[in-house]
C-alpha cells in the first residue's frame, strides 16, 4: 500500500494508521488516549495523540481546522469580524474560559476540497466516482439519480 505521494508506507505509518483507527472506531476520548500514552508509551511504542494526528494529516493531506465557536454551538463561529469578540453577539455567552485565552467551545472542520482531491488521486475511488459518465442517460428506467428529470435539466 502507498500513501498519496506513491511512496510505500513504513511500519511506523501502518502503526499510526492502526492507532488512529482504534481512536475512531472505539470513540476513545483524547483524554483517555493521553492517559494510556502517559502510562504505556514505552511498552506499546505509542506516539502522543498530537503526533498521531500530525502523521495522519501528513499521510492523507487533509488538515483539520479548529475554530472557536459559541458554547451554544450554532450561534456564532468566532472568525473574521467575530474573531476579536469576548462574547457571542447573539446569545451573549462568553467566548473564553476565565483565563481569558482558552475558548469555551471549538468546532473541528475537515475541508471538503482536499478530501475530494485525495479520493480522485486514488485510482480505485476515482473510477468509482466517475461511474455516472458511463451510464446510458437515455434509459427509460430510473434506477439512479442521474436518470432523473432534474439531473437531465442540468445538462
The topology string of helices and strands comes to: HHHEEHHH
Helix content: 40-55%
Question: How many separate structural domains?
Answer: 3
**Approximate shape:** flat
Structural category: mainly alpha
Task: Provide a concise account of the structure shown.
The protein has 155 residues and is mostly helical.
Please give a structural write-up:
The protein is mainly α and 155 residues long. The protein has 3 domains: 1-60, no CATH class; 65-109, no CATH class; 122-155, no CATH class. 43% of the residues lie in helices and 6% in strands. It has 6 helices and 2 strands, in the order H-H-H-E-E-H-H-H. It has helices at 11-26, 30-44, 49-60, 112-121, 123-129, 149-154, and strands at 65-69, 105-109. A two-stranded antiparallel sheet has the order 1-2. It is flat. The mean pLDDT is 85.
Amino acid at each position: 500500500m502507498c500513501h498519496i505521494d506513491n511512496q510505500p508506507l513504513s511500519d511506523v505509518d501502518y502503526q499510526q494508521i492502526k492507532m488512529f483507527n482504534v481512536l475512531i472506531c472505539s470513540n476513545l476520548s483524547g483524554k483517555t488516549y493521553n492517559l494510556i500514552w502517559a502510562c504505556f508509551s514505552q511498552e506499546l511504542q505509542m506516539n502522543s495523540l498530537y503526533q498521531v494526528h500530525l502523521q495522519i494529516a501528513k499521510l492523507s493531506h487533509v488538515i483539520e481546522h479548529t475554530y472557536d465557536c459559541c458554547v451554544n454551538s450554532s450561534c456564532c463561529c468566532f472568525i473574521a469580524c467575530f474573531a476579536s469578540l469576548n462574547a457571542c453577539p447573539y446569545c451573549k455567552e462568553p467566548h473564553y474560559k476565565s483565563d481569558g485565552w482558552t475558548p469555551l467551545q471549538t468546532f473541528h472542520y475537515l475541508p471538503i476540497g482536499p478530501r475530494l482531491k485525495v479520493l480522485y488521486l486514488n485510482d480505485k475511488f476515482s473510477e468509482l466516482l466517475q461511474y455516472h459518465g458511463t451510464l446510458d442517460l437515455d434509459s427509460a428506467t430510473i434506477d439512479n439519480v442521474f436518470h432523473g428529470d432534474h439531473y437531465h435539466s442540468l445538462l
